[in-house]
């Protein structure tokens, strides 16, 4: 029997995944959290065979949460399930300690396969991401400009695009304002944009807005 925690702020997504997994495997417990605080409370209270995690929660420091969850339980199996493009976020999440990365647009069979693979303590990377990494390695695929951002810069770019002010972002990520301002300047320089509007347009052009911002 399998115990799962699904962390996602969209109830309809949680309901769909819950139904899909219970129809295809023996799930003994399926707990849900729609924010970071509730997720931490449940993780401290229970042990799970699998944690399904979205990147795009309200006021969420994703990299900080990944660091916390793996300190709390170094053997936790985390499968990222999100709308963000895997060629930009997939490998980053794996490097942060996730066992796999999957877009929510994946077919049901792929979701089930990914879940089963991670439960077997194996990493999961989609065929599409594997092909992208191989093609990019041999220079056949032009890089999405957002792949040039660091993990923190990408996180801040998303928060800026979500309409968060720099002071709000610094509070969410627990960083100094001067540090946040430096990150913002680097983001603009690397992406060659001069304003938040230009940043937003660039993110839309590369379909980087995921499921919409919270």
What does this structure look like?
By secondary structure, the protein is of the alpha/beta class. It folds into 2 domains: 2-135, Rossmann fold; 145-205, Arc Repressor Mutant, subunit A. The chain is 52% helix and 12% strand. The chain has 10 helices and 5 strands; from the N terminus they run E-H-E-H-E-H-E-H-E-H-H-H-H-H-H. Strands 2-1-3-4-5 form a 5-stranded parallel β-sheet, with helices on both faces. The chain is globular and about 50 Å long. The chain starts with a strand and ends in a 9-residue tail after the last helix.
Supply the key terms.
214 residues; alpha/beta; Rossmann fold; Arc Repressor Mutant, subunit A; five-stranded parallel β-sheet; 12% strand; globular
Rg result: 17 Å
Name given to the CATH architecture of the largest domain = 3-Layer(aba) Sandwich
CATH topology of the largest domain: Rossmann fold
Helix content: 40-55%
Number of DSSP helices?
A: 10
Helices, strands, pairings?
Layout: E1 2-7, H1 11-24, E2 27-33, H2 36-45, E3 50-53, H3 62-72, E4 78-82, H4 86-95, E5 100-103, H5 108-119, H6 127-137, H7 151-161, H8 166-173, H9 177-191, H10 196-205
Parallel strand pairs: 1-2, 1-3, 3-4, 4-5
Helix pairs in contact: 7-9, 8-9
């Amino acid at each position: 029997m399998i115990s799962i925690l699904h962390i996602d702020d969209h109830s309809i997504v949680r309901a769909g995944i819950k139904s899909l997994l219970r129809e295809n495997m023996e799930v003994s417990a399926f707990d849900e959290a729609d924010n970071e605080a509730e997720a931490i409370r449940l993780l401290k209270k229970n042990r799970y065979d699998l944690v399904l995690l979205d990147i795009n929660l309200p006021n969420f420091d994703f990299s900080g949460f990944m660091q916390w969850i793996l300190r709390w339980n170094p053997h936790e199996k985390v499968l990222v399930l999100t709308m963000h493009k895997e060629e930009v976020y997939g490998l980053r999440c794996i490097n942060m300690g996730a066992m796999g990365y999957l877009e929510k647009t994946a077919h049901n069979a792929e979701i089930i396969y990914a879940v089963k693979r991670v439960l077997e303590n194996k990493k999961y990377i989609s065929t599409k991401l594997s092909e992208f990494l191989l093609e990019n390695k041999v220079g056949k695929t032009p890089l999405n400009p957002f792949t040039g951002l660091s993990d923190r810069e990408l996180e801040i770019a998303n928060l800026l695009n979500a309409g968060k002010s720099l002071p709000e972002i610094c509070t969410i990520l627990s960083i100094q304002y001067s540090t946040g301002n430096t990150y913002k300047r680097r983001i603009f320089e690397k992406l060659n944009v001069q304003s938040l509007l230009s940043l937003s347009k660039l993110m839309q052009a590369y379909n980087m807005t995921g499921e919409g911002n919270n």
